[in-house]
Write a structure and sequence with these properties.
3 strands, disordered N terminus, three-stranded antiparallel beta sheet, about 60% helix, mainly alpha
Length: about 180
């Protein structure tokens, strides 16, 4: 069975918060590699010799690289590698695949996971790595819990851009054969 042989659970079964957060964590592990390779490419192309040299340009470059990564996967099948592993797919509010524009909007709005916590850490004058990480983790936890209060238990960025996460389970071989024989 190939990875493209999947079906959406009827009618749009939604993954639970624990499964979505597990996919979130797995995505972070995978993105470490993407960011590492992109950062190495950037430093080689710009002849960067010091971590603080070109720091803002590197951040903008990584923002663009991650935007391309997510928009590509979300508009071409609705799943990143981590989402495939956890059987989660992103679709629009009617269950259709995302356009590249909607996928890009979802990417930009997904920074709501981090920006409020980082802004509050900055406004509070936090400077230690531990304090900033604590604020960031608290913000992520609050954002995840907020999903439990929103319509259909979706994340805020999904509500704002008209997308939803659904469960997409692999087709079993017998179900695939039955589908093919009815055509």
């Amino acid at each position: 069975m190939s990875s493209t042989e999947t079906t959406t659970a009827a009618p749009y079964e939604r993954p639970g918060l624990a499964r979505r957060m597990a996919a979130f964590m797995y995505e972070g592990v995978l993105l470490f590699g993407v960011v590492f390779v992109a950062g190495y490419f950037f430093s080689a192309m710009t002849q960067q010799r010091h971590a603080m040299q070109g720091q803002h340009a590197l951040q903008a470059f990584l923002f663009a690289v991650l935007g391309i990564y997510f928009a590509w996967f979300w508009s071409r099948g609705g799943q990143t590698v981590a989402m495939k592993a956890w059987h989660i797919r992103v679709v629009d509010s009617q269950g259709r695949a995302l356009s590249q524009a909607r996928a890009l909007a979802r990417y930009v709005l997904s920074y709501l996971w981090f920006v409020p916590a980082l802004l509050s850490a900055w406004a509070s004058g936090l400077h230690s790595t531990g304090a900033i990480m604590g604020a960031l983790l608290a913000g992520i936890a609050a954002y995840a819990v907020l999903a439990l209060l929103l319509p259909q238990k979706q994340f805020l960025h999904d509500v704002l851009c008209g997308t939803q996460l659904i469960t997409q389970l692999p087709i079993k071989r017998a179900e695939k054969h039955a589908l093919n024989s009815t055509r």
